[in-house]
Amino acid sequence: MAIDIGSLMERSTAMLSSDHKSVVSMNIFVALLCACIVIGHLLEENRWMNESITALVIGLCTGVVILRASKGKSSHLMVFSEDLFFIYLLPPIIFNAGFQVKKKQFFRNFMTIMLFGAIGTLISFVIISLAIGAIFAATDSVHLAGVVNDATSVVLFNAIHSFDLYHINTNTALQLLGNFLYLFISSTLLGVLAGLLSAFIIKKLYMGRHSTDREVALMILMAYLSYMAAELFYLSGILTVFFCGIVMSHYTWHNVTESSRVTTKHAFATLSFVAEIFIFLYVGMDALDIEKWKVVSDSPGKSIGVSAILLGLVLVGRAAFVFPLSFISNLTKKSHSEKIDFKQQVTIWWAGLMRGAVSMALAYNQFTTSGYTKVHGNALMITSTITVVLFSTVVFGLMTKPLVRILLPSPKNLSRMLSSEPCTPKSFTVPLLGNGHDSEANQKSQDVPPRPTSLRMLLSTPSHTVHHYWRRFDNAFMRPVWWPGFCSRSSRLPH
To answer: In the record, which residues are listed under signal peptide (predicted)?
Structure first.
C-alpha cells in the first residue's frame, strides 16, 4: 500500500496548527485571569467593583480586540461551551457555596431562604412565562438563596423540557409539579448520601494518619462524583453538589486531620474563585461572537425591543416575589431589628442581579446546537439573553454600592449589610437572614406570649425553628455516628 507522504505531512501540519491555536487560547485566558485578579483587587480597594464584574468588562474588551484582529470573523475562542460551564466550572462554585455556608444561620433561616430561593423563583418563573421563565428566573436576591435559586431554575428547566407547553392543562400542570418535586427531592437526597458516604469512608479508614493528600483527594473526588452522578441520572447536579458540600463540611470535615481541614478550606475557595472569574471572562468574550449577531442583523430594532421587554419582565418578576415574600418573612420576625424594612427591600430587589452564566447556559442549551444557530428566532433569544445578562450584571452590579449608601446611610446598617466580600452585590442582603446572635438560652428565658388571636400573632409567636429540630436530631442520631468521639451528652458543643 502506497503512503501519500504529502497528504500525511499536510494532516500533521494541520494538527500541529490546531494544537498551537489551543495553546495560544489557553495562554490568553490565563493571562486575562491574572489581569482580572490584579485589576479587580485594585478596584475593590476603592470600593468600585470586584473581580467578577472586572472579568466581564475585560472579556468584552478582549472580544472587541479579537473581532478587530480577525476582521469581523467568528473565533472559536469566543464560543460559549455549555459542557465546559456545567461540567468543569460550575461544580466547584456551587460546592464551595455549600461547604463554606454557616450551617447554624442556614438552618435557622431555612424558611426565609426557601421563600426567596425556591418560591421566589417559581413566582418569577410564572410571571415571565413558562417559555423562557426558567432561563431568566435565575436572579440572586439573597446570598444563600442564590444557590437555591439557581438550582431551582435548572430543576424547572429540566422539569418542563419534556412537556408540550402549547397544550397545557390541569393534568400537565400536575405532572410538571410532580416532576419538579421529584427532581428537587432526589437531587437533595443524593447530595446528602454522597456527603455521608465520604464521611463514613474517611472515618473508618482514618486516612490522615497515612496521607493528608489522600483525604483531600477523596473529598474533592467525592464532591465531583456527586455532581456527575446527578447528571448521569438526569437530576440537578447543582442541588446535589450544594447539599453534598453542606454535609461534607458538617461531617466529613470533622474526620480529617487539621492540615487537611486547612487545605480543603482554601483549596475549595480558590477553585471556586478562579472558576467564577473564568465564567465571567468567558461570558464577556462570547457576547461579541459575530455569528449569532449576523443572524439578527437585519432586524436590530426587534432585537433591542425583545431585550427591553425581557429586562422589564425580569424586574417585574423579581419585584413580584421580593416585596410580598419580605412581608411574609416580617410576619415571622418578633424583633423589629430582624425585619426587612422597605428600603432594604428595594435594595434586595435592585441588587438581585442575574446569575449571567446560568442564564446563558440554559439559553444555549435550548436555542443552539454546539453553541451555534442559524435560526433567526433562536439567535434572537440568544442575543436578547446576552443583552439582558450584560446590562443587569454591569449596571445593577455597579450601581448597587451607591444605592446602598443612599438608602441605608447609617453606619450600623452598612456594617450589617457588608459581608466578608464587601463589593459583591449579592452579599449586601445579609440582614434578611436575621442577626442570628440571640442564643437559644436567651429565647427560652423570655416570657410565654399570649395565645395568638390573628394570623400575624400566630406567625409572630416564638416557636421552634428548623434549626432547633435539626439540632436535636443531629445530636441524637447523626453526630454520634459520623463525628469522631461524639456522644449524645455532648450536645452542647458549639456548631
So the answer is: none
CA atoms of 283 and 277, how far apart (whole Å) = 10
pTM, full prediction: 0.76
Query: Residue by residue, what is the 3-state secondary structure of the chain?
Result: CCCCHHHHHHHHHHHHHHHHHHHHHHHHHHHHHHHHHHHHHHHHHCCCCCHHHHHHHHHHHHHHHHHHHCCCCCCHHHCCCHHHHHHHHHHHHHHHHHHCCCHHHHHHCHHHHHHHHHHHHHHHHHHHCCCCHHHHCCECCCHHHHHHHHHHHHHHHHHHCCCCHHHCCHHHHHHHHHHHHHHHHHHHHHHHHHHHHHHHHHHHHCHHHCCHHHHHHHHHHHHHHHHHHHHHCCCCHHHHHHHHHHHHHHCHHHHCCHHHHHHHHHHHHHHHHHHHHHHHHHHHHHCCCHHHHHHCCCCHHHHHHHHHHHHHHHHHHHHHHHHHHHHHHHHCCCCHHHCCCHHHHHHHHHHCCECHHHHHHHHHHHHCECCECCCHHHHHHHHHHHHHHHHHHHHHHHHHHHHHHHHCCCHHHHHHHCCCCCCCHHHCCHHHHCCCCCCHHHHHCCCCCCCCCCHHHHHHCCCCCHHHHHHHHHHHHHHHHHCCCCCHHHCCCCC
Residue 142's pLDDT is what?
44
pLDDT tens digits along 164-190: 666 777 887 788 888 888 988 999 999
Q: Which residues is 145 bridged to in the sheet?
A: none
Where is average pLDDT lowest: 117-121, 122-126, 137-141, 239-243?
137-141
Distance CA(260)–CA(266), nearest Å, equals 10
Handedness of CA 296, 302, 305, 306 (dihedral sign): negative
CA atoms 35, 41, 46, 49: torsion sign: positive
From the list 482, 440, 47, 479, the residue with the least C-alpha distance to 256 is 482
Highest mean pLDDT among 37-51, 79-93, 143-157, 188-202: 188-202
Confidence of residue 226 (pLDDT cuts 50, 70, 90): very high
Confidence at residue 73, expressed as pLDDT on a 0 to 100 scale: 61
Instruction: Residue 250: name the closest of 446, 6, 12, 475 by CA.
Output: 475
